[in-house]
Design a protein that fits this description.
365 residues, alpha/beta, TIM Barrel, 2 domains, eight-stranded parallel sheet, 12 helices, 15% strand
């Protein structure tokens, strides 16, 4: 049995797979276009996307917007598939990044790391300014049914806009997590527990407003059997991040990819990120030194994340993640999902998606 398509309004992906947005620079146009070419939704991560621009220190806003435009343009040149961007609410450049993505006719914007309560404003304003209907889909990333309800209520009351879909991201995800530290291992917050509640919320919105609000599940989705389980539960698709890191098309350095392949279960740890959220990463000497207070103080020149406690944190999260993306893991660390230790090889995007579909088909039996 082949994968069903993923419908987000009139936007159709042939495969029900959303490649998770992974910053800084892990998922750019190379990975996003490769996933889109295989029928999934390829996602460019917007978080400090301009870190490699020569003027990022002097003009961080301009550098990030320029890099975002360039990555969208390049992805479009490489694929006719569905391309999205992931833009964190916590970014100080959030509003400008959303406008830029919409102006460049991105297919869909995924937004988490906070509730994107004001995101439809940019779409409405641009439609008014340009006197045309812009079709970018807006998809909040949430961690509970309550969060889904809050976003939907705000969007409907202020903008008369129903969310085009929800991504439910569970506590097994990689990178920054939308849970308190004590909730991460609490069975009550597992995706399998939260999903039915979010599906009920989405169904109530559909019944009231006459349009489906698909739910996409992320965080710990590893193989085709997982995909089948969540689709059988009522999800419309899944979001997968870490598996796509270990592909030839991923935009990260080979040493970053190898860190995922080499990771053991005991290497995966929870850190307290400078942005004020817990995060999941592969423990290394940099993280150990940070926990001992051995990392050096720094001067913030980016102010990229609103919630970053610059006066207290021992390192710049943007710089550390850029170092890791370049393969300099002695001066950074790799974010990863809870199942990273199960990844044992670097493959290609087509092979990975084909294997997921074969596993999905096998699970039907």
């Amino acid at each position: 049995m082949p994968f069903p398509a993923l419908h987000i309004g009139d936007l159709i992906a042939k495969k029900p797979i959303v490649q998770g947005g992974m910053g800084v620079g892990i998922s750019l146009s190379g990975l996003a276009s490769a996933v889109a070419n295989e029928g999934g939704i390829g996602v460019i991560a917007g978080a400090m996307i301009g870190m490699r621009e020569p003027d990022v220190a002097k003009n961080p806003l301009e550098a990030n917007l320029r890099a975002l435009r360039n990555e969208i343009t390049r992805a479009r040149s490489l694929s006719n598939g569905v391309i999205g961007v992931n833009i964190m609410v916590a970014l100080t450049t959030f509003t400008q990044m959303v406008r830029t993505a919409i102006e460049n006719k991105i297919d869909v914007i995924f937004s988490g790391a906070g509730l994107p309560l004001d995101m439809p404003r940019a779409l409405r304003d641009l439609c008014d300014e340009k006197k045309e209907e812009l079709k970018t889909k807006l998809v909040p990333i949430i961690s509970s049914a309550r969060a889904a309800s809050v976003v939907a209520r705000k969007w409907l009351s202020h903008f008369d806009y129903l969310p085009d879909a929800f991504v439910l991201e569970g506590p097994k995800a990689g990178g920054h997590l939308g849970f308190k530290r004590e909730e991460i291992d609490d069975p009550a917050h597992a995706v399998d527990v939260i999903l039915p509640e979010v599906l009920d919320t989405a169904k109530s919105l559909e019944d009231k407003y006459g349009r489906p609000v698909p739910v996409i599940v992320g965080g710990g989705v590893f193989n085709g059997a997982d995909i089948r389980r969540y689709l059988d539960m009522g999800a419309a698709g899944v979001q997968i991040g870490t598996r796509f890191v270990a592909t030839e098309e991923c935009d990260a350095d080979i040493r970053f990819k190898q860190a995922i392949v080499n990771a053991k279960k005991e290497d995966i740890t929870i850190i307290q990120s400078p942005v004020g959220m817990p995060g999941r990463a592969i423990c290394n000497d940099f993280i150990k030194a940070s926990r001992k207070g051995l990392t050096k103080p720094f001067k913030c020149i980016f102010h990229c994340v609103k919630t970053c406690e610059r006066e207290k944190t021992p390192y710049c999260i943007a710089q550390v993640l850029l170092n890791a993306m370049k393969g300099n893991l002695d001066r950074g660390f790799a974010f990863c999902g809870a199942n990273a230790y199960r990844v044992n090889e670097i493959t290609t995007v087509p092979k990975l998606i084909n294997s997921l579909e074969a596993e999905y088909d096998a699970a039907a039996g």
